[in-house]
Amino acid sequence: MRVALHLISWSLLLTALWVSGCRKKPDSFVEEGSLDFSTDTIFFDTMFVNLPSPTERVTVVNNSGNNVLIREIRLESGAEFDMVINAQQGDTIRDFELPDGDSLVAFVSFKSSQRDVFVRDRLLFTIGDQTQDVDIEAYVFDAVYYRDTTLGLDGNTTTYLDPDKRHLIDGYMYVPDGHTLFIPAGTQLFFTPRKDADFNLTSGIYVFGRLLVTGELGKEVVFQGSRFGRRYEETPGQWRGLSFGNLARASSISHAVIKNALIGVYQEYGNPGFGPKITIDKSEIRNMGAYGIASAGFTPENYLYPVLRVQNSLIHNCGEGTLAIFGGGKFDFIHSTFANYTLNFTRNSPQVYINNYDADALVPYACRATFSNCIIWGSEEDEVVPDSFPAQGIWDVTFHNSLVRTQEPLKGSNIISSQNQDFPRFVSPLESAPFERDYRLRENSPAVNIGQRIPGYDVDKEGLPRDVQPDAGCHEWRP
User: Fold this and answer.
1) In this structure, which of 55, 332, 367, 375 has its CB flanked by the most CB atoms within 10 Å?
2) What are the pLDDT digits (tens) for 289-340?
3) Which CATH superfamily groups domain 36-140?
4) Spatial separation of the C-alpha atoms in residues 281 and 376, rounded to whole Å
5) Contact 442/420 with Cβ under 8 angstroms?
6) Over the stretch 188-200, which tens digit does the pLDDT of each residue have?
7) In the beta sheet, which residues pair with residue 334?
């Protein structure tokens, strides 16, 4: 029996060798056949002058039945675009062998010095006398470019951004003490995804003087990332955000859209001036990788003026939370909506977190925060968690005439809550359209007419007049 098995094994081996010898050798390549492409166009949605693009790719498959010799792969012009084929880089690659059933990946990137134009090229694949191509298209924006810029070095005390130009910030834009950065209505600012050696995002505006953002309804000032295309439109964590240091004072942000950063607005170490340190009015902060608004107070001073006043504004869709207050401070939140539905990210923490101490040193600080005519709602059962140090006279967090999703006992008056996720009855998100975010109120919303009239707040975020019995949140319901 062993002899028989031995003979059978040798017979199978000889048969396999004979069959493999009859097959076409893998090194016999012919200039005959056609290729299949994963796309007919490589499209870079929008890029900035002299800024390297993300890399796009196209997969090329040989289903021709032949082992194909591609005589030439090249960029038609090669002036703006760079090409890498299976780790080979250059404008032209010759005699590329692609076995039947195999594929290659072409990576294309570009950097253009042209301005406000479409840039086009073609990726050409020549087999014998036949050439196939993939179109390459990009639109190049002109922009004023800032790289690690400190304002005021020219001796001026104010920097005014031209609203007719786009502004691209790579790294920090630093506003020093005594200097004012003025950003008028309609200005668009773009921030690169630059990171430091520890992989921290660095592109942002760092304010130690004063920031004045004067947008208008329909001409909002927009702060966003520098990458374009559908995949980046609503993607968090593309840039650092707006940061206000210990010396910043009397700053205001009106009719702005701040999106896709790590932290939308961050402030630290109290208020050295008169009036609110930062006022955010009729603005939207959305799609933050961490927080919409974060404050690190940690100052023992008696807060006479608010560190932050947020009014008629919408803060939503943030990875960690819409609002985080660490180390106390004084805050006013008026007619604002904080909404966090975990539709495209995971979150197990409340969207509004407030504490008044240093967790490491166990040092308490005074905390005074008032929420008037606000909505705080989302997908968690407890969306507000006050965390106070057990000391007398340093904690006063109060809610008035507001919808708050929580099971925690809150101080205040006319606080309405529920564990029904749809309780505020926003226009959306709905089960039928979960990724649409329209936080206007439906007619039967419990937020309608629960507010208390506050002098100076006669219109909502969209400029609509509030009636004598206003609604909670940033939007006044209209039939």
Assistant:
1) 375
2) 999 999 999 987 666 899 999 999 999 999 999 999 999 999 999 999 999 9
3) Immunoglobulins (2.60.40.10)
4) 17
5) no
6) 999 999 999 999 9
7) 311, 372
